[in-house]
Here is the input.
Amino acid sequence: MGESVPGFIGGIKAPAATNPTHTSRPSSSRTSASDAWEVGDELEDPSAAQEALALRELMKKFVQEMVAGKKFDIVIEEGKTELGRLLLSPNLLSLRLEAAGVTHEILLRDIKDVRPGKMGSSFAPIQLDELCDTLVLKNNSCITFRLRSVVERDNFSKCIKVLALALEQ
Here is the structure.
């Protein structure tokens, strides 16, 4: 534990049980801004550490599945769906969408927002349902997927947001 998550820009750290580089502070009543936060402080809040670990596991599974490629229902005209395949590049910089014999590359840095459920309706010309997840790109075009469950939709949203945010740093 404590190693960097491979592939993430910014070196997101896994929670560590101890901080081996930490040395004791001088016994002074004054603290500087750099003393205010140290690696491992999240361990003071066990729920935050558990949440970080759960997110790490979710991201690991998501990245493995998506690099291999996963089939998704893509919402098209009049709310109909078409089966497509979505792949994450091994360098975690882009998605490749294969649908109807056409391949589209979506750079993760071009994702402006991820809108779960009906929240994406303002960007889509059709009525969406709670199983939909809309990726809004910086050029205001969008791609909507219909997932099998709300949990799957929420996990997809969370993972895409984490990957896109990692590229903004």
Summary: The beta strands are 70-75, 81-88, 94-99, 102-107, 111-116, 132-137, 142-146. The longest strand covers residues 81-88.
